[in-house]
User: What shape does this take?
Amino acid sequence: MNKFTLGMIGLGTMGRNLLLNMADNGFKVTGYDKDPKMLKKLEEDGKAHDLKGFESLEDFIQSLELPRRIMLLVPAGKIVDSVISELEPLLDKGDIVIDSGNSHFSDTSRRALDLSEKGIHFFGMGISGGEEGARFGPSMMPGGDKVAYNAVKPILEAVSAKVNGDPCVAYIGPGAAGHFVKMVHNGIEYSMMQILAETYDLLKNGLGYDNDQIYGLFEKWNNGRLKSFLLEVTRDIFKVKDEKTGGYLLDLIKDEAKSKGTGKWTSQVSMDLQLPIPTIN
Assistant: This one.
């Protein structure tokens, strides 16, 4: 049987969507997940490409062509270390492991060093665009082992978003550069979301604008130099109605937000480096 070009570990929404994106672009790919429900979902969504996954890690590893290209899309932290420890005994020198989750850059540096001593290429890669981006074209920030990057560069360029025909992916630099840039990217994104929230508050509670007026203003801004994805999705929220009450959904939701921690990491690193980032902090 022909072996697979790349294997994905972690078939949640992000991993599954990115795998489907690769299959759409003609790559022979497969996946692994301990949860049978995730494997079934991959099979259902990937019918057009006869896309299937493995429940056995050993079978998954043996299905990949050499050198193996393995991408991880699992929750950051101890789970990444756990997956790598399971993988290590099954890998050969020259194999490639890519951590595409939101790992802290210091963890990526440590993992890269550990795996390099065993002859395994490793790099960390930030992915921007969420579930929709993963499925139809994300922006990607790979950094680390250049040999590993070059081995998957054609795949990444094919599945990435494009601007004027140019792929939204580029080698960021050695070490944990990819995950460092993704951390800063997320910190900037959090600050932009806070600015949008404060703008809404001033318009609504300070100037007395209703939701339709705020929508119109955001629409005007989004047609000019301020145009952005965040402004666009924020604008659209102002029109959403609650099915039960008929009122605006935005007026009914709890006034609080949670984060995944990457914004905090940006602030902490800026203090360590003694670099001011007042908009984020």
